[in-house]
Automatic annotation (TrEMBL):
Protein name listed in UniProt: Eukaryotic translation initiation factor 3 subunit B
HAMAP family, alphabetized: eIF3b
Natural source organism: Chlorella ohadii
Gene Ontology molecular function, alphabetical: RNA binding; translation initiation factor activity; translation initiation factor binding
Function description: Component of the eukaryotic translation initiation factor 3 (eIF-3) complex, which is involved in protein synthesis and, together with other initiation factors, stimulates binding of mRNA and methionyl-tRNAi to the 40S ribosome.
Amino acid sequence: MGGPTAMLRPEEEKMFEGQPRGFPFGDFDLEDVMLPEGEDMGIPSDTDEDNQEEEISSESGFGNVLVVDNLPQVGPEKYEKLTAILTKILSGSGRIREGGLFHPVDEASKMSKGYAFVEYENVEQARAAQAALNGYQLDKAHKFAACLYDEFERLAKVPDAYEEPGERVFTPGENLLDWLTDKRGRDQFVLRYGDESEVCWNDAAKQQEESVYKRSFWTEAFVEWSPRGSMLATVHRQGVALWGGKSFERLQRVGHPNVQSLLFSPCEKYMLTFSEFPAGPQGRPHFLAIVWEIRTGKRLRTFDGPHEEYAVGAMARPDRGMRWPAFRWSGGGDAPVLLAHMKANAISVYQAPEMTMLDKRSIKMENVQDWEWSPAAPDATLAAYQAEQGNLPARVVIMKLPSREELRQKNLFSVAGITMTWHPQGDYLAVQVDKWTKTKKSTTTNFELFSLREKDCPIDMLELANKSEKIQQFAWEPRGSRFALLHGDGSRPTVSIYNMKDNKSSARGVTLLHTMTNKQCTSLHCLNRLHMPTLQGGHNGVVEFWDCEEMTLLSAGEHFMAQEVAWDPTGRYVATIVNAAAAMENGFQIWSFSGQPLYKTAHDRFFQLNWRPRPPSLLSEEKQKEIVKSLRKYSKRYEEEDEALLAQADTEFLAEREKQLSEWRNWLAAKKAAVEEREAFAREQLGNRVSAHEEFVIQQVEVSVVLDVKEEPAQKL
């Protein structure tokens, strides 16, 4: 290409018509603008790690081919049957191309060679199949070893001679509980809005949130805290990443393409990731669930295949898929960590970390429809519901694992449906029983209330005055023995508050404490102890805060179009939320436990506000009760500390404002000095001519000149 004065041919000028002047830039040299090899302009990348594994290359054209080894070696009489079985298994995680399964046979012995090549429709399906099939147990003697074809190239580079690795220096990680050391005892929450994800302190004293960490495009779907708040999970197309510490460094990442849901174990040692695939030509949706050990990132077990085996009872969707979560972790504490799922007439339970089936057999339960783990129990305890079958009545059973001891069971008749709700501390189990009337045209409702901490686990029954009233919501008090019911038809239901103990004698027995009728209420949200806000319906977003000890209305406020309510883990503050499902007013508002509005923040396309959970207290129940009784003695000291912190915050604010004002004054003085210096230089160089422009008058004049006039006769139409 020529220099800057190079002329273009007429056809080239037409080609580049409309481009900037000088295009195609004859003096342009590509080498002048190319970056040096390895240069990243100082922008760090999440994927730039020294120890990162080499990415699998698909340049060979076989990126969608999977090699499956450790297959049975069979003769001609069993070859076709084995190939049909392999086709069924291998197509469970992806669609195989026509003629895409190659199961070679040894020409001399006529025996299959014990491996197969599988060609899927795309690379993503091949990787998903590799994740699902590697380690698949076909029978006692054959366990699949699945590997991508392109990965052989990487394995071929491994030297034959052993090379001793160099010494690696241990670098301690950040404290995952650093946020608990905040001197002011503040809580954190994570926000997700637009393309941003942000972790903030809830600074109620300053009536604003304080940003801790903010990042764009941190997740592609949602974020979720671990049960004890140690880690934050972000979801991506490739899998899940876990972050923690003061600077939110990446702790772990696991590969699960197109992951859709995740579930932590309460002890934060294990995590289950889940994805499902749409129905194929046979109309059978498939799923993939993987259990991981969080510390090492090791895959412990894989569940995959069609939904039919797992979509049973309450877990079945109308489209023949299974509801989430069909897999559930047992409660925390010192009990063994168990994972369970339901199938036809049984519940299968697996124990971590081996993830083998408990006692090598499922728990047989005829016509089981639903089950729930106790959220907090010294031993793993589950409650299960078995529907009526023939002359056998329906049954609710509470069982302790791993001993399989039945703690209590209750037979029920004419059952239309059951809903089980555990107390957050595992003290009680509420079973809402909807029963058919004699005509089978309507139902009545009553509650069976199990007291797990009492001897022999006694059962109390609660019936409303109007048995046919619809139960809209049941809510336990997180710490205590009270519960609330939202019941009634129409837009103005009734709120009733009960206690599992008699207020005067503290003896067991369900007692009605208070009833609020004709409330335009849509949901109840109970706090740890005395206060219970009710979020009213409609677009008004009216929030009422009630003291359940004195049964008095503390305050009422309004958050227009509010859809969600979320208490912080300490019960001191509550957030009302308007998410992106609403076309306007997106954002959140923070309130005190007594209903005082503190601050409100608006964000366009607001998706999530999740409070950061706190780990269980290290204090015993007796010590906690002692602190509650002596709260006034402690509160004085902490009030003084709060005042000192606020005074310090005011001092810091004033110092920062004074610093900014000083910087502004220095900047202004520097600008004035520069102007004076320029004027002095102009006077020195030009003398009296500096002000010569003041002697002239500038006028703007427009002159019109007629260059030519031409007359032509108009053509007749």
